[in-house]
């Protein structure tokens, strides 16, 4: 009886946190992938997967949408020459948990209904990174904001002054700052 209690306590402390994982196909076979605060891990099927989140630039959730049973998760590495890591056929029931994990880890993610051709996208980013940044970076993946909405956001930000920059003192320096802001527009 004491041995069983010990086993149960160890299992409670060190058991695999199944609620933090999801099923998907990272290579050729379906596997259970575990998400942690610092990694994406799959150690059952060979080849094993251990990707630290510091290596990831963005995540794109593809083929998600109403009525879809599965979606794909694409991790784009900060080193564009490395390509992307794709987990295929993740059940749609795991979508909310994955989004929560991405938000918790502060990874930027996008959702799209279509599969993208990542090799040409990354090649373009490598060949002309300045143009990539000028074109808005990864915002072309943002399906929630149309081009006209994006322009409106840019225009509305022109007159933005952070609230912590304002003070209640009413000093002459504050008046000079306001004048210079008006003049620069």
Describe this structure in words.
- This protein is an alpha+beta fold.
- It has a domain of 108 residues: Roll (PH-domain like).
- The chain is built from 6 helices and 8 strands, in the order H-E-E-E-E-E-E-E-H-E-H-H-H-H.
- The C terminus is likely disordered.
**Which residues form runs of ≥5 with pLDDT under 50?**
146-185
CATH class of the domain at 9-116: Mainly Beta
Query: Can you identify the CATH superfamily of the domain at 9-116?
Result: Pleckstrin-homology domain (PH domain)/Phosphotyrosine-binding domain (PTB)
Q: Based on the structure given, which CATH architecture of the domain at 9-116 is correct?
A: Roll
End-to-end CA span:
78 Å
The H-and-E topology, N to C, reads as HEEEEEEEHEHHHH
- β-sheet strand percentage: 15-25%
* Helix amount: 25-40%
- Major sheet: arrangement of strands: 1-2-3-4
Q: Count of helices?
A: 6
Number of DSSP E strands: 8
Question: What's the CATH topology label of the domain at 9-116?
Answer: PH-domain like
Radius of gyration equals 23 Å
Helix/strand structural class: alpha+beta
What coarse outline follows from CA principal-axis ratios? elongated
Largest sheet: 4 strands, antiparallel
Arithmetic mean of pLDDT = 78
List the helices and strands and how they pair.
Layout: H1 2-14, E1 21-24, E2 31-35, E3 39-42, E4 49-52, E5 56-62, E6 70-77, E7 84-91, H2 95-104, E8 109-112, H3 118-127, H4 129-134, H5 147-157, H6 172-184
Keywords: Chromosome, Coiled coil, DNA damage, DNA repair, DNA replication, Nucleus, Transcription, Transcription regulation
Biased composition (Acidic residues): 170-185
Subunit structure: Component of the FACT complex.
């Amino acid at each position: 009886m004491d041995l069983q209690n010990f086993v149960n306590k160890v299992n409670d402390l060190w058991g695999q946190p199944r609620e933090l994982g999801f099923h998907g196909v990272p290579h050729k076979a379906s596997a259970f992938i575990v998400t942690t605060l610092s990694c994406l891990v799959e150690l059952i099927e060979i080849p094993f997967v251990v990707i630290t989140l510091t290596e990831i630039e963005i995540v794109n959730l593809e083929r998600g949408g109403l009525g879809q049973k599965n979606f794909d998760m694409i991790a784009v590495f900060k080193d564009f020459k490395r390509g992307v890591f794709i987990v295929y056929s993740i059940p749609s029931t795991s979508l909310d948990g994955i989004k929560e994990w991405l938000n918790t880890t502060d990874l930027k993610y996008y959702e799209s209904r279509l599969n993208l051709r990542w090799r040409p996208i990354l090649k373009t980013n490598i060949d002309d990174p300045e143009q990539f940044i000028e074109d808005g970076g990864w915002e072309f993946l943002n399906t929630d904001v149309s081009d006209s909405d994006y322009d409106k956001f840019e225009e509305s930000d022109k007159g933005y002054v952070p609230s912590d920059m304002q003070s209640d003192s009413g000093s002459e320096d504050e008046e000079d700052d306001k004048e210079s802001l008006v003049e620069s527009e």
